[in-house]
């Protein structure tokens, strides 16, 4: 629940994922963006997980956050891997 709070998603998101349940695509995108921005420099990113590019600038208005440039590429890779728009 602590990680979910820091990421900014529902506090049970990672509990549900751990139980084999899914999440909304927006939750996936937000989480992946947060991890890409906050991943420790001395820790290797998992090889089989597409890493989105972090946003270049903070949004000018609240609620208008730009998506990382390669989110569409990551979504395409997920769909090609047989995954839907929900987290596995």
Question: What order do the helices and strands come in, and which of them pair?
Answer:
Elements: H1 2-7, H2 13-18, H3 25-38, H4 71-80
Summary tags:
mainly alpha, 4 helices, 41% helix, 88 residues
User: Quick one: how many beta strands?
Assistant: 0
Distance between the termini: 19 Å
- Helix segment count? 4
> Share of helix among residues?
40-55%
Q: Describe the global form.
A: globular
The residue ranges in which pLDDT falls below 50 over 5 or more consecutive positions are none
Give the mean pLDDT: 77
Order of helices and strands: HHHH
- Provide the β-strand percentage band: under 5%
Structural class: mainly alpha
Query: Could you describe the largest sheet, including whether it forms a barrel?
Result: none
Oligomer: single chain
CA gyration radius, whole angstroms = 13 Å
Report on this structure.
This protein has helices at residues 2-7, 13-18, 25-38, 71-80. The protein has 88 residues and is mostly helical. The chain is globular and about 25 Å long. The model has no long low-confidence stretch (mean pLDDT 77).
Task: Give a nutshell description of this structure.
The protein has 88 residues and is mainly α. The chain is built from four helices and no strands. The chain is globular.
